[in-house]
## 1
Amino acid sequence: MLHQIYLMPLLPLVGFLILVAFGRRMSERTAGIIGTTAVAGAFVVAAGSFFALLGQSNREVTQSLFTWIPVGSLQVKVSFLLDPLSVTMVLFVTFISALIHLYSMGYMRGERDFTKFFIYLNLFVASMLVLVLANNLLLTFVGWEGVGVCSYWLVSFYFDKDAAASAGKKAFIYNRVGDVGLLLAMFLIFSNVGTLDYLSIFSHASAFSSLTATLIVLALLLAASGKSAQIPLFNWLPDAMEGPTPVSALIHAATMVTAGVYLLCRMNPVLHLAPNAEIVIATIGATTAFVAATVATAQDDIKKVLAFSTVSQIGFMVMAVGANAYVAAVFLMVCHAFYKALLFLSAGSVIHGLHHEQNIKRMGALRKLMPWTFGAFLIGWLSIAGVPPFASFWSKGDVLDNVYRHYPALWVLGLVTALLTAYYMSRLFYLTFTGKARFSEEGPNGEHPIATPHESPWTMRLPLVVLAIGSLAISVIDFPWAHDLSLAHFLEPVFRTTIYEPHESVGLLYLLGGIDAVVALAGVVIAWIIWSKKTERPNLERSFFRNVWYWDNFYDLLIGRPLTRFSQFCLNVVDLKILDGAVNGVASLATRSAKGIRKVQTGQVRQYALVLVAGIAALLLYLLIRVH
Amino acid sequence: MTLATVHSSFPYVALLLLVPAIAAGVVALLHSASRQAVRWIGLIASLLTLGIAVAMLIAFDAHSGGYQFVTQHSWASALGISWLTGVDGISLFMVLLTALLIPIVLLGASEQRRTKSFVAWLLLLEVGCIGSFVSLDLILFFLFFELTLIPSYFLITGWGGPNRAGAATKFFLYTFFGSGFLLVGIIYVAVVHASQGHALSFSLFDLQGTQLSGTAGMLVFVAMTFAFAIKAPIVPFHTWSPDAYAEAPTGASVVLAAVLAKLGTYGILRFDLTLVPHASKVAAPVLLTLATIGILYGAIVACATRDLKRLVAYSSVAQVGFIVLGTFALTPQALTGAVLLMLNHGIITAAFFLLIGWLVARRGTSKIAELTGLQGPAPVMAAIFTIVMLASIGLPGLSGFVSEYLVLLGTFLVHRWWALVATFGVVAAAMYLLWAYQRVFHGKAEGENAAIRDLTVAERLVIAPLIALIIFLGVFPSPVLNRIEPSVNRIVDQVSLSNCTPGLVCTHAPIDVRSRTSPASSSTATTIPGANR
């Protein structure tokens, strides 16, 4: 299977092309099956590649297809690199993508542009696989932008809604700001080592001065903060929830938004040269995690809560990267992909059942009505909340242990965030599934009562079951007791530079784990006390948090409005008055002087031309005199 | 009168000029031809020209950086002017771009009114453009360069929008004004060359060895660059372009923005860098600064425009900024990127103006405020517009990215601060284009907007080659890059070797530009006077 790496991005790309060419004449069913099969095929190849890689000692396989950009010393190839890190990524990306394709066949049934949805989705998967499998930064950038544009299309999928259209645009532009970081990082790297191939960069990494390395890492961090929704570029992600829910699950939770973390992990040998930048990374991650968690406590939209929780969870991953704990970052990324996809798909099932109601204040008592969805969400909730023995207890715990070693202050912030996580997720769970059935009442703004919800079809339930099992089982891959079979051991060749310092005493680890468990349970219990009886607690849902710390307003005031005014000034004053005015002024001056010399009026053009020719002749004469 | 001719087994260049010229003459002289007949003549002639251009591409030796298919006929020998033409890896693609766009314009944006004159002027414009790109004699270049003005002027005034007269006059006079300086520069170089004991000549091969003092070289650079800066247009000499592009009929907008403006950047590349390499090097920081300002300024103003055509005009200003940036960065990557961007920008802008033209034909306006929700009733138009837009934004996988990336990377290697600022231009491009797309294509279509017809099959076929090229050049640009690079390397070497000791004349290490004629006749080829000096 190691010679068929290219099949992974190619299969979804072929699916995309088939749907583009023939999609209009297909039934929804056929189009859905083609789209899903293409991605499932990619998963089969990924699994085959994984086992093939396990079976050999050389864990770095490169496959080159053709030269993309050859100019002088810049020789960029379309080549793929299969190593433990990329194979880990493609496994969970293709697996979850395939499930979400299947789910979408049910969720999107009867929607306008059903086929187009699968077109975008297939192209997305192809791009994501290019991003992950690329053996050089520029090809990664191709995938990076590809997923970005698919995200743009899918967020603004309901393009006749203004909110959706604006959200898509916002996502693209925020990402574009991040792209500047990736471009600059590439320029810095190329001008220092003359290559963009990962393995060559790493083998020449000693050529970077510590200042250069710091600049590169900060530029990469900017890129990552765009794609992975971190401060200062995080606020596009909540808006992106305007997209259909399967998109939120796939792109804005499980896969694309972790690309920034992947990039930082991939570049770990360079990060290692820039300890100061690593402090910045850890701080950004911890702060983002905290800010997003506070916001999540005050949201009413089921998808918005999950969106801010995604931002917060990625913050944990970034924090792990900053603490050199790459394995912990990847471990959390994989676990998060499972339980967050599960949560989003369950939320989608709820929204589907409630005829597109997303306000949790209008839900409640869905436990009996949607048992499958309830069970799935329950597992997702316990997983993310960090309750032992569920996934996040292990993975987030791993992150926190590492942060404790490097940055004790950030560890405290991380614990507070963990408490908030357990709290807001429990609030979400109680309001949605327990208590009174509020959907059958009139809404707070006079909305009509909603008909009793129904459980979703099997195409939607099956992925829920699989993801629920996955969420339960996934933490097995990195249990601390079986090092030889663990993710940490598997990834060692990639993160060779470090990482795990000599283990802390077992006692300390148990103590830290105990603290994590207490914090998680405390969050669950506190939320139960507060939210099991009442649905309105204005003191705990401050508008400061509801409005995301007024982050958007701040940007609008600081950048948006001045830029608008400046662009209007440039057009109306600089361009039309000053620059064009000068041109017209010179022209009319010429006309007037021409009128003085010759009274014959034979049309403007000729007059100007005459003046010009006279001027040219004079100039020429002057120059020629100078020569001789 | 001696006839110094380099034989070329097949006269590609001459035919490239003759076919459209004869067709233009025939169309102009036909009195009673029907509109259809005229269109057919124009179409066949322009497709024939395209065929010749493609054949030339196939016959082109990709490994040579010199001029190929060179032909020289003495013409006005007493004045030192000769008919000297040929192409290298740079002009080759400019010729191809021109030859490709004329039939597309005839098919997709032909005028129903006075078709005969429209076709004739358009073909004459093709002659002017191709002639400018293939001229290796400076006076010949100047004549073709000026020749393009006349058909452009009449195309704008004849078929343009309500303010066409003012726009055409401004366009004509502004460019004409600039070309005055160009002529002065050309004559000055030739006279200095002659005064150094050579025969009077305007051949690029002869003049590139001219020894100019630092000041004189700078004056020549300023004079010629002024003309080219207006044509390109480089900020702050761009104000004619939004008016001209917006008022011109679709077909003329396509040629004006996609091809004619390239004469400016091409002129800088071909004549500034070859004739006054040292001055170009000295002045580079100024031009790099203007380029960077142009990239940001064009984008910022584009954000405030309220009309699609003007938006594309200002976006062109920004793109030209990238071309100039790459040109004056003077590294192989940047300059190759700049040349590729000239081609890519031509294709992308042409597609933009075609689409906007079709939109105007349906809705009668290109005002952004009056268009909403068109993606609903016209999904194919929306999809094609999206591809063109993303190519313009610089999405990898589409053509614009490769050139933009090469320009920025190549510039960063030597002038990182300019590159740093220019890189933010990629954000700006996304802002105004996505904003415009949202206003025009997203939202709910009502009234006239809801009744809009999607692109017809014919229109889809007309724009298909452009879309195919946008994708092809994004995925597999190496066939083009491989042909551009040797010529670019020649220029880069030439400029980097040029030297100027204070108080003395500047020396250019004359690079051997002996041209390759077609393989069959190379052994019998007469040497071009001066070319191998």
Note: Chain A has a mean pLDDT of 88.
## 2
Amino acid sequence: MRKVMTGHKAVAEAMRQIEPDVVAVYPITPQSEIAEYYADYVHDGIVHTELVPVESEHSAMSACVGAAAAGARVMTATSSQGLALLVEVLYIAAGMRLPIVMALANRSLSAPINIHCDHSDAYLARDAGAFQVFCESAQEVYDYMLIAQRIAEHDKIRLPGIVNLDGFSLTHTSQVVEPLEDAVAKKFVGVFKPVHPLLDVDKPVTWGPFAMPDYYFELKRAQQAAIEEVPTVFLDVQKAFVKTSGRAYAGFVEKYRLDDADRALVVLGSTAGTAKIAVDALRSEGEKVGLLKVWLYRPFPYQAVASALERVKHVAVLDRAISFGAMGALYSDVATSLVRSQVRPALHNYIYGLGGRDITVEQLAEVLVGLEKVHPDEVLRYIGLRE
Amino acid sequence: MPNIKTLAQREEKEVRFTPGHTLCAGCAEPMVVRTVLNAIEEPVVVASPTGCLEVATSRFPGTAWNVPWIHVAFENAGAVISGVEAAYKALTKTGAVKKRIRFVVFGGDGGTYDIGLQALSGALERGHDFLYVCVNNEAYMNTGVQRSSATPRCASATTSPVGDEIPGKPQDRKDLTQIVVGHHVPYVGQAAVSNLIDLANKVERAMKYDGPKFLNVLTTCPLGWRTPRDSAIVQAKLAVETRYWPLYEVIEEKYKINYKPKAHVPVEEWLKTQGRFRHLFRDPQGKERIAEFQAAVDRHWNDLLRKEQCLSGGEAGQG
């Protein structure tokens, strides 16, 4: 049944259906409403979840790690400074191979403090060992919460996963979402089977030992092997979801009017919606433009990105965060994707939307229209910046 | 109440903490761990923050733990055990877990007094059902004897050295036991490795309660205190006899001092046996500093006597 709901509610609905045993969460704008909706479910007895209203995000992820190692299905959500505070433990969750799914309401990082959207928090978690998905709409947020849960808990993966949703533009805006029926969603996600749980006291295990140079390297290599399995599992789970839901997802990226495009944008998150309008407008004027939207950000789908872009002539990669002292993080990934292509586009890097700065259809159209005239060099360009 | 025999019998039945760890010779930590674990009848799950105990007991691929054990990081043992306990509650509700399981944290003073205080406070306030044992050896021994907020005034540590200007640690130690009392949890106690039966009794009394329980256990570190390796028990005993480390408990907010030394043993007797205080017996101002140290010990002991008198819940408290 189609419903109107915010991105927050879409996350909370998916969580209600997933029904984790433990949710540990700490308030932060623009994530708090996820915690509030879920607290309602717990306090109204709709779910069996133990809610741990922790005293910080660091403790949120720490409690999640404890609960997951104990044998529970666990979830959390955070944003910005909260992600920065808990990122230490996110690395540990990945190292301990714990399937903790976390919604990340994307928000800028201080200083100056700012509560609005950009992707600096997601980029901060980039190398943590969690897989990451970006969403364009509240529907995608709902869908990828379910998909992420099943990927995270897959035997071959057992890693934390992050579902990114842009702060305010997705968290606080109401959109039409069509959730699955409860029974269908529950069946899709399946039952969590813990591995070596602490609570199996008859088979005591040591979780989180320390490893010296004689073992550390091999253990980290094994962790890399696990995240390298994500793409295969992602496609399987996405396919199963498409079959269950009738939604039209296919692959790690969405190619929008890209087949014959000579110019294209590459974006993450809700900006894809704005970009599609810009592409449509220019197409109606005969401009051959397109869009590549990246769903799976970590592990990065290099080959899919390369095959989507290599025949395009000019590509503008849009980063919604500065990687200070370097080119944008998404740009670097796209450049790496294309480095072995025989024919490859001229690449440009644009920084946009920091701290919630609006990005408009006109601005995106402007980037596409003049793109072939821009000299392709390793220079950051800025959209919507007063200089 | 347990005695040495019953504790030994319990260990014979199930060795929860096994030999072969790499704690230093003369370290008092294993005695605390074994005593606490032997004093609990039900199955336990243990968490430890980063520290001596964690490093010396869990070097991959070995382990000294014959009970389920988890280490996550330095500052978060309170939160980790909160998660484990929450999982237990949830999985008991669903029927996936059927046994009664108890939850114990062993954390050093660095991981408890300092970097882990927030996570501990949160766990205490939320009322999780667990026992937190601070294995307190009064400095960051694992990283090389740096001062912590549990380090006593005047003590020499590698980040509070005896220099020409500043002789050792200028500040008083923090009273963590009292901070925990301020959380109004059902059981708070102070114990010492010299009094193992007292420790076992405290664990047994504590485990009768649901909710957070806390024990601050003075645990000698020959390396950091610069004392002989065979003196761990004597050292802790002197700390108790000099009233530097009172053995007491606060059960349902009622105070009880478990041991009142009959003779007034000056704290100097304890200080002079330890290398970390050696400068007090060498420097011209040492006498004055020892007098200040003694005054602080007396003040805290008298405070405790008053609390016992006023907040004992017995006859003395009725007036």
Note: The longest strand of chain B covers residues 102-108.
